[in-house]
Design a protein that fits this description.
By secondary structure, the protein is an alpha+beta fold. The chain contains 8 helices and 11 strands. The protein folds into 2 domains: 70 residues, no CATH class; 203 residues, 2-Layer Sandwich (Chloramphenicol Acetyltransferase). α6 crosses α7 and α6 packs across α8. The radius of gyration is 22 Å and the shape is globular.
Length: 292
């Protein structure tokens, strides 16, 4: 593990420029690196951050057009690259029986209409995750930049990744464990709608215990979401599929939800992740438990 002290933004820039932070720290004779230290530093030949060999004239091979990356997209790309390069990530794949959730949603359809709230499956997933995070506090934590201190959080905030025309946004629902299902459902709809219109404020983003990235409305059977630091894990959700389950000699079709938990292996080991996911799947299979 590196002993160099540098903010995530500095690490992202160093990665982008192909600068070896450990070598730079040795050359400077200190352990902390600031953004200004990167100015004028030359990239390390052959390192993953050196992308000079990607500089290709693609028009030689056929017609092309150019689309500039927005500032928002550039910052997100740098953060994702740094997270993927600096965090040893593992993804645990599982699936949950959502028969009871779908039955309960149907049962509550008329009440949802009367309340003017769209009760999506995501509201149940957010509530279940909040309950699981209370049960497994090590996943409701952040690792200090120097990797020496684990900060355990006595709150549960859940980030919701929203796909928008201007890039991925992650508004956060605060204190999910203290809110009812209807309030969570209403906040999800409100934040997702305002994210599309770029009306989510800075105070409504950041500080999440964990983020949910759901592709359920689009498709897929599994994926490996990238941990969104300083969180130590992220939950991916794809499209529910019908799976044949055997009750003795009788086959039974069951709607199963694929779940993908990517986690920082410095903090969470495989057994921790497996226990967490088993507990989460249990809540989704019996949703009334998460509302107690």
């Amino acid at each position: 593990m590196s002993d160099v002290i540098a903010p995530p933004s500095v690490r992202a820039l160093a990665l982008q420029k192909g600068i070896d932070l450990e070598k730079l720290a040795r050359d400077l004779g200190r352990s902390s690196i600031a953004r200004e230290d990167l100015e004028g530093s030359k990239p390390a030949a052959g390192r993953a951050g050196n992308t000079s060999y990607w500089d290709v004239d693609h028009s030689v091979y056929g017609p092309v057009s150019e689309e500039p990356m927005s500032r928002f997209a550039q910052v997100a790309a740098a953060n994702l690259a740094a997270a993927n390069a600096l965090i040893p990530q593992v993804t645990h794949h599982d699936r949950a029986d959502v028969t009871a959730i779908e039955a309960l949603r149907q049962e509550l359809k008329s009440e949802a209409r009367a309340r003017g709230v769209k009760l999506t499956a995501l509201a149940f997933h957010v509530k279940a995750l909040a309950r699981a995070l209370r049960e497994f506090p090590r996943l409701n934590a952040s690792l200090s930049p120097d990797g020496k201190t684990l900060i355990l959080k006595n709150y549960v905030h859940v980030g919701i990744a929203v796909d928008t025309a201007h890039g991925l946004m992650v508004p956060v629902i605060r204190d999910v464990d203290k809110k009812g299902l209807w309030q969570v459902a209403a906040e999800i709809a409100d934040l997702a709608s305002r994210a599309q219109d770029r009306k989510v404020g800075p105070d409504e983003m950041g500080g999440a215990s964990m983020t949910i990235s759901s592709l359920g409305g689009i498709g897929g059977t599994a994926f490996t979401p990238i941990v969104n630091p300083p969180e130590v894990a992220i939950l991916g959700i794809t499209r529910t599929e019908t799976v044949t389950v055997w009750d003795g000699d009788a086959p039974r079709p069951v709607p199963m939800l694929p779940l993908d938990l990517s986690y920082d292996h410095r903090v969470i080991n495989g057994a921790d992740a497996a226990r967490f996911m088993t507990y989460l799947c249990g809540l989704l299979a019996d949703p009334r438990r998460m509302m107690v």
